[in-house]
Structure formats: C-alpha cells, structure tokens
Design a protein that fits this description.
Pfam families: DAGK_cat (PF00781), YegS_C (PF19279). With 352 residues, the chain is an alpha+beta fold. The chain has 2 domains: 133 residues, Probable inorganic polyphosphate/atp-NAD kinase, domain 1 (Rossmann fold, 3-Layer(aba) Sandwich); 182 residues, Tumour Suppressor Smad4 (Sandwich), CATH 2.60.200.40. Strand 1 and strand 2 form a beta hairpin. The protein binds adenosine-5'-triphosphate (ATP). The site of adenosine-5'-triphosphate has 20 residues, from helix 3.
C-alpha cells in the first residue's frame, strides 16, 4: 500500500530551473512537485482509490489523501506555496470546493491549472465541463482544451481574512469568505438534502432539493429578505423560501442545468412562495422553474448583497458546505480558474 503522502518524484531525473522549481531533464511531464492530486478516498461509493492512484502516478502527479473535512483546503494551499502548476481534485463536489478554496486562499489562480477527477455521486460540475469519467479526466488533462471560468465567492459576518484562519478550526458561524464553483443555495432548500432521493438528485441537481423542500413544507410563508445588486438596477424584496445563486449551475429552464461559466455573472433564482402545484418529478420542475412561473424571480448579476429582514438567520450551502448568516455578499471572480475541459463542454449553453 502506498502511504498517503507518497510518490515524490525521483530527483535524479530532474534539474533545477532558475526559479528553483524542478523539471524533468528529459523535458517530459513536469515533475511531481509541479503536479499535485488531492484525493478524497471515501467520496461517492469509495471504490475509485486504486484507479485514481494508478492514473495519477502514470501522469506524474504527487498524491495527497484527505482524512477529514478541511484537509483538501490546506493541501491545495500547500501545493500552491510549493510551486505546483497543476492541482487536481479527485472526489465529489465537496472536495472540488475545498481544493478551489485552498487555491484561492493561497492566491494561486495565476499560477495553477485546476483539474477535476469525478469521484463523487452526482459529479455535476465535472459533467458540466465535459469530463465523463476518471480515465477521461486524465486524457483531458493531457490533450483537452483549456478554458478560464468564473468563480463565485461569498463573504459573510467577519472582516478577518480567510487566509489567516486554520481550516480545521474554522467556525462557519463566525463568518468568513468562501468560494463556490457550482452554487450557493440559501433558505430551506439547504436543509432538505436528507429528504432528497439520489434518483431525483441525479436527474435534477439542486432543483431536486428545492422540490423536496417544498414538498415537506406545508405551512411556510417564506422569509422576508432584500437582494440588491449594487446599483445595477436589479433588486428584489419579499418573502422567499429559497434563493439559488449559480455560478457553474443554474436552475432548470427547459431542463438545462449548466450556467454560462464565462460570463462573469451569477444566475440567481428566487423562489417566492410555496406553489400549489403537484411537486413531483421533471414535469413539476419544468413548471416550477419555467420562464412563466409567477413565483419564480430571476436575476443575472456579477454581484449581490442579500439581507434577511426578519431577524432570522438562513442556512446556505456552498457546493454542499454549510454556512449560516443573516447577511452575505456574493461576487464573481471572472475567468480566474483555468481548467482543462472535455469536448462536451459548452462555453455558452444558451447558444443552441
Ligand atoms: N477521508 C475523509 N473522510 C470523511 N470525510 C472527508 C474525508 N475527506 C474529506 N472529507 C469531507 O467530505 C466532504 C464531502 O466530500 P465529497 O463531496 O467530495 O464526497 P461525497 O459527499 O461522497 O460526494 P457527493 O457530494 O458527490 O455525494 C468534503 O467536503 C470534506 O469536507
């Protein structure tokens, strides 16, 4: 069994560059110090460990394995500090989120290409960027096109910079800053994961959570809130049951869940009240999220501020990571994440 922190390259095959980083003397793949893969061994059904290790080793990656929440943030930040040029995340959306957050905290976007190896249950983000399987991910790393996509960032509750905090000692209730690749989903939706069947999740992504939530809530009037887009004319006040803020993902209009990840804007969907329709399955989702639905509001904006006016706090899920707050700002960092994409990636999903 290889140890978790293993597989450093043989330095005899390397020479030093003037900047101090190692490269292969034969000009082949960069050395292991240039390529780091962060592996969550238990994600999904937990049977990917061997295949990921084999392919990662063949493709010149060092491997670090996570033991617990927060590890991937620290490992990714370490990789940036150690001069990595490619940092890959092998896990579900939670691991992808932690790795991109670690790169953000280490200010590594100019230096690092971010790779996605789908090892979760739904793998929604990987699918959106055209990566179909573990094996396909490594092919795409070598020969796929590279794009620069946006990153969503949430700030809440504190002015203390996130890079000053140890991720293992973080208290999300104290506030902070956090990246998201896919979505920031607020309101009762964020609480409903346990009620959502995996079949529904596969088919509808985050919309499934909204459906489940609305199905279990019978007497809920929504929470009074105000959403402002900083002088960009769009604002909304009212009682909402859910707010869905998408970067990589949006909420289905005619079944499409991928957002434009390169437009520098967030796709915001506000679910105003509990609709009285029969909330089961795809047909209901189309009605619920369709363009004409009265209780759905949509905004597109590079940034927004959300304030809960009722004195309550709301729970938000950032790619599955939970925070709780009465006020937050959300912004997009346009085009900061460079990543290899598969042929199926659609830069502009609205351009049919
Ligand atoms: N070895 C580990 N054991 C338990 N939890 C871990 C470990 N490593 C990381 N984690 C935590 O598990 C969280 C969930 O990981 P991830 O989303 O990658 O897997 P998953 O939940 O199985 O996948 P999916 O969301 O697709 O179902 C991570 O965000 C991280 O906080």
């Amino acid at each position: 069994m290889p140890s978790p922190e293993n597989l450093r390259s043989d330095t005899s095959t390397t020479r030093n560059r003037t900047d101090g980083r190692r490269v292969r003397a034969d000009g082949g793949h960069p050395t292991h110090s240039d390529r780091m893969l962060i592996l969550h061994p238990e994600s999904g059904n937990g049977d990917h460990d061997h295949e990921v290790r084999r392919l990662a080793t063949e493709h010149g990656f060092s491997i670090r394995e996570t033991d617990d929440a927060g590890d991937a943030i620290r490992f990714a930040a370490d990789a940036v500090d150690d001069g990595a040029e490619f940092v890959a995340a092998a896990g579900g959306d939670g691991t992808l989120n932690e790795v991109i957050e670690g790169i953000r905290r280490a200010d590594g976007f100019e230096q690092v290409t971010f790779g996605v190896v789908p090892c979760g249950t739904g793998n929604n983000f990987a699918e959106n960027v055209g990566i179909e399987s573990i094996e396909h991910a490594f092919e795409v790393f070598e020969s796929g096109g590279r794009r620069r996509i946006d990153l969503g960032v949430v700030h809440w509750g504190t002015d203390e910079p996130s890079w000053a905090r140890d991720p293992s000692e973080e208290d999300p209730s104290a506030g902070g800053t956090r990246a998201f690749l896919n979505s920031c989903v607020g309101g009762f939706t964020a609480e409903a994961s346990d009620e959502t069947s995996s079949d529904l999740k596969e088919r509808l992504g985050v919309a499934a959570y909204v459906l489940s939530t609305l199905r279990v809530m019978t007497d809920f009037d929504g929470i009074r809130m105000h959403i402002d887009t900083h002088g960009r004319e769009q604002q909304w006040s009212g009682d909402a049951v859910s707010v869905l803020i998408g970067n990589g993902r949006r909420f289905p209009v005619e079944g499409r869940t991928q957002a434009d990840m390169e437009d520098g804007r967030l796709d915001v969907t506000i679910v105003e009240e509990r609709p009285t329709i029969d909330l089961v399955g795809q047909a209901a989702a189309s009605r619920l999220f369709g363009r004409d639905t009265e209780h759905i509001n949509r905004l597109k904006t590079p940034a927004l501020q959300l304030d809960v006016l009722s004195g309550e706090t709301l729970r938000f899920s950032l790619d599955g990571e939970m925070i709780e707050t009465a006020s937050l700002t959300v912004e997009t960092l346009e085009g900061v994440v460079e990543l290899p994409v598969g042929d199926a990636y659609e830069p502009d999903p609205d351009d049919d």
